[in-house]
Amino acid sequence: MLSVYQNIIHPLEKRRLPPSYKNQPIKLRNKAVEIANALLHEGTSEGIAIVTGLKRAREFFKTKNDRTK
User: Fold this and answer.
1) What CA–CA distance (Å, rounded) separates 60 from 23?
2) Could you tell me if residue 39 is inside a domain?
3) Model-level pTM?
4) Range of the domain at 47
5) In a domain, 51, yes or no
6) Cα(48)–Cα(1) distance, integer angstroms
7) What are the average pLDDT values for consecutive 10-residue runs of the chain, which has 69 residues?
8) pLDDT at site 69
9) Kind and range of the H or E element at 12?
């Protein structure tokens, strides 16, 4: 189901995001989708890819913010 997460920027695709992604900041959501897509491409199950994508995106931005302080 890789196509569920492709083309997130396209307005018609936004409605197909998992509920856990919809209220996230755009940068975080886009990074989470990028990570989830990579995981799906590697064969990870959709549920695990969704959760892991969001978790790793949060870690990415936390680490990025920590480095700029």
Assistant:
1) 18
2) yes
3) 0.73
4) 31-69
5) yes
6) 13
7) 43 65 91 86 86 95 78
8) 64
9) helix 11-14
- Whether 67 is covered by a domain: the verdict is yes
Residue-wise DSSP of 15-61: TTS-HHHHTS-HHHHHHHHHHHHHHHHTT--HHHHHHHHHHHHHHHH
Separation CA 62–CA 40 (nearest Å):
24
Q: How far apart are CA 25 and CA 42, in angstroms?
A: 26
Q: Cα–Cα–Cα angle for 36, 41, 46, nearest 5°?
A: 50
Is residue 35 in some structural domain? yes
Handedness of CA 13, 29, 50, 6 (dihedral sign): positive
The number of distinct structural domains making up the chain is 1
- Which two tokens mark 50? 């969704």
